[in-house]
Amino acid sequence: MTWKDELRTIPAPEPSQDLLQRILASRAAGVRVVLPGATRSVWSRRTVRYAATAAILAGVAWLGWQAVTTRSGVESELPPVWVIGGMPFIPSTAFGQERVRPAMSPRYPLIAQIQPTRVRPGRWTYEGSTTGDGVFTTSQGPPRTIVIAAGIFEGQPIWVASSSPEVLDTVLVDLVTLRPLRYVCPMRHARLVQHFSHDSIDELLYVEPSPKARERTLRGAALLPDVGVGPMLVSWSPHSLELLVQALPLNRDWRGSVIVRTGSQWPRGSPRSRH
Amino acid sequence: MAYQGHSSLYLEHGRPLFRLAYRLVGAREDAEDVVHDVFVGLPDSLQRYEERGSFAAWLKRVTARMALMRLRNAKRRSEVALDNAAGQAEPPVAVERDGLQAAVDTLPDHLRAVLVLKEIEGYAHAEIADMLGISEGASRVRLTRALKRLRNKLERGR
Question: Is ipTM > 0.85 here?
């Protein structure tokens, strides 16, 4: 037996007896963990790599062709590098391109679990700031205030989160999972009502009629991404994000962030009009 | 695939997943946390599981990814916490280990991960590259370096 074979026989300890109990207790307490995908994306990565290479080659060829066909009259300030046949190998126009910066990633570990029990009723004021392209900005706009109250919706305990009087929208979220159940947003001449089920969203937009028209209701529906995984934000409602922030396991003076992934299947079909 | 329930899934797959996590993260508590997170997140993730391969293999890949994420996060945390931890950290407890195990333990995380995934778990370099976010070539290089270091340590130990 070689030492490589011995590698496979290195003993590992056994997990604790209470690990299963810990798991069951966490699930019972509503703890949710978003697991990383386990699909094999090797081929797709290769495909992307080949496609990117082909695109770059095509781009360089096109630039070269452009340089050759547009050389009548005006000479470029930067002389191109010539190779056989008079074809510019690196046309001067290519120097005007900028290298794409790699995608920004968080500078600290992501929080994979939330603690919905940290949410408390009351009136909460938040100062908003935005991080874009790695630049952390200072406070933006006036502080936002939300009011959180306990309630019952269709027989189950919920949080009712309402925003400051300027906006007046309200979201009902499940008390255990913090997933939204219903969202109402009154607007000046319309009212948006959304109903969330475990895998889809239905929305109604009531539009106030003009003097000579009839009332209109626009109806839409969409599948929700990542069914049942973690809480979900109501895209248009900032206070649902603030509600979620309360559930992040952060200590005082620590900073956390929420990465929002939007669904790719929105909307499923175009809204249809009903009179 | 119908969700079987935590207990039966854990009883069937818990031990091998724990061993995999332990070999990757190198600490019992961390390995238990990895397995805990995998099983807590499992019911939701099962909805994304496509029955194209072995369920056990899928679970292993998820666990390996979780363990690798934990390694990366721990590395970042330790980089951040060095200033604050001065004077508070206790030296690691010396554990009497078998020579080969001790040699594996001394490998840096990025080399040990490739070694464990390739030589013990039997993943292909393409799969390892995908899990670690590196190229296949880098995976091969890391394995070569890991094996070389192990060989040197074992020869010095004789």
Answer: no
